[in-house]
Design goal:
2 domains, Glutamine Phosphoribosylpyrophosphate, subunit 1, domain 1, alpha+beta, 17 helices, 6-stranded antiparallel sheet, Rossmann fold, 24 strands
């Protein structure tokens, strides 16, 4: 889990995870990696980094902030030569926002250098780290990703691929990662396939990345998803697939479809935009109420609201307008104007809302504070009724697999039933999509309670792995010298 938010106000919804990108055998590796990270910016906005290899040396540039803030000049890109590279967009799920925690991370081994970029979260990281520290390993960051580096370093196997496999066998949790060595680009998904990773190609150059939108931006071709438990090894001899783990039931994160993936991506062979419209249609079938208009809470609520409106035959309207020029790290300057914060990103379209019965469609409710302000805004604009429909089940449990959610006691659904939540938010009615409705929209069948087809632990607390580091309590943040940035 992530430490407390660096913002001066609490997180009000789950935050993005991380995005990874890797390419092998292209003279413009750094430039294409930067473009891929641009497309994956929605998966993390705290920091970005790129590592390249030119056949003799590794080169790296890492920085806090957005991709476009740092990988935007010839001077920077000229410092990243080579025909192979990997990149990473960061949203911290473990470790403070410090430059030393920015990925990809790099280390020199007996077999040569290797850089790793990781999306996910290891649920036994602290336990493994404790063992490694007792063996004399020195850690330079608070990231769980660094544990993989030390496990590779201390492995007794001879080849880099066998060392990586040995390291991964000691891990629990979720991970999709790309690694770059002097001769290979390696991609890995955990045996449950919780986080996405896809394989593409640009000309003769293979690509590994978190979502297909990163292929689209550079005109690359989508080949297939990397399978759960699969290791893709790419070198001058071509591409080979290794499946060293025992087969198990896949538990892909269903919230990728609800919120995290870009709507123009294809995830696990499903178009995210179409899935979200189907989710909205299911929501309308389960809980429609008589209204004059369907209004999305932008931007993530838009596809579901479209599906809802089409299903129930009610007008879809942009009753709330979003300001896209306010970043997520905006710092409100003084306490006495803190209550204006929601208006920095959203404003009611008053001329369209006055005198209307409105249903607001959003993807989730976490703490509920933003929902309260949105509802107040819509009522102030003159809406006569305000109903809210949520295109996912209630978020009642924390995620331990790479999504930054608040601790369970801070989640509104863990403390209130739906009627109490409706009164707290100030709506005339509130309804969430059922787990079965979500599964019907995504997979075409209801949820199997014995063997869920997806990881839905944030809704059901049905965690697919052991939570070694989290038995009984959330561990304290690791101690590390603070650096200025």
């Amino acid at each position: 889990m992530a430490p407390a938010s660096p913002l001066p106000f609490p997180r009000t919804r789950p935050q993005e995870e991380c995005g990874v990108f890797g390419i092998f055998g292209h003279p413009d590796a750094a430039q294409l990696t930067a473009l891929g990270l641009h497309a994956l910016q929605h998966r993390g906005q705290e920091a970005a980094g790129i590592v390249t290899y030119d056949g003799h040396h590794f080169f790296t540039h890492r920085a806090l902030g957005l991709v476009g803030d740092h990988f935007n000049t010839r001077a920077v890109m000229d410092q990243l030569p080579g025909n192979a590279g990997i990149g990473h967009n960061r949203y911290s799920t473990t470790g403070d926002t410090l430059l030393r925690n920015v990925q990809p991370i790099f280390a020199d081994f007996a077999f040569g250098g290797m850089a790793i970029a990781h999306n996910g979260n290891l649920t036994n990281a602290r336990a493994v780290r404790k063992t490694l520290v007792a063996r004399g390993c020195l850690f330079q960051s608070t990231m769980d990703t660094e544990i993989i580096i030390h496990l590779v370093a201390t492995s007794l196997y001879s080849t880099v691929v066998d060392r990586v496999i040995d390291a991964l066998r000691q891990l629990e949790g979720a991970y999709s990662l790309v690694a770059l060595t002097q001769k290979k680009l390696i991609g890995v998904r955990d045996p449950l396939g919780v986080r996405p990773l896809v394989l593409g190609r640009m000309g003769e150059a293979p690509i590994l990345c978190s979502e297909t939108c990163a292929l689209d931006i550079i005109g690359a071709t989508y080949i297939r998803d990397v399978e759960p438990g699969e290791i893709i090894v790419i070198d001058d001899d071509g591409l080979r697939s290794i499946k060293p783990f025992a087969p198990t039931r896949q538990r892909f994160c269903v919230f990728e479809y609800v919120y995290f993936a870009r709507p123009d991506s294809v995830v696990e062979r499903r178009n995210v935009y179409e899935i979200r419209k189907r989710i909205g249609a299911e929501l309308a079938r389960e809980s429609h109420v008589a209204v004059d208009m369907v209004v999305p809470v932008p931007d993530s609520g838009v596809p579901a609201a479209l599906g809802y409106a089409e299903e129930c035959g009610v007008s879809f309207d942009l009753g709330i307008i979003r300001n896209h020029y306010v970043g997520r790290t905006f710092i409100e300057p003084t306490d006495n104007i803190r209550h204006f914060g929601v208006r920095l990103k959203h404003n009611a379209n008053a001329g369209h809302l006055a005198g209307k019965r409105v249903v607001l469609v959003d993807d989730s409710i976490v703490r509920g504070t933003t929902s309260v302000k949105i509802v107040e805004m819509v009522r102030s604009a003159g809406a006569t009724e305000v109903h809210m429909r949520i295109s996912s089940p209630p978020t009642s449990s924390s995620c331990f697999y790479g999504i930054d959610t608040p601790e369970e006691e801070e989640l509104l659904a863990s403390r209130m039933d739906v009627d109490t939540m409706a009164r707290y938010i100030g709506v005339d009615s509130l309804a969430f999509l059922s787990p079965d409705g979500l599964y019907r929209a995504v997979a075409g069948t209801p949820r199997d309670p014995e063997h869920p087809q997806f990881c839905d632990a944030c809704f059901t607390a049905a965690y697919p792995t052991s939570l070694t580091d989290y038995d009984g309590c959330i561990p304290e943040q690791l101690t590390l010298l603070t650096e200025s940035h």
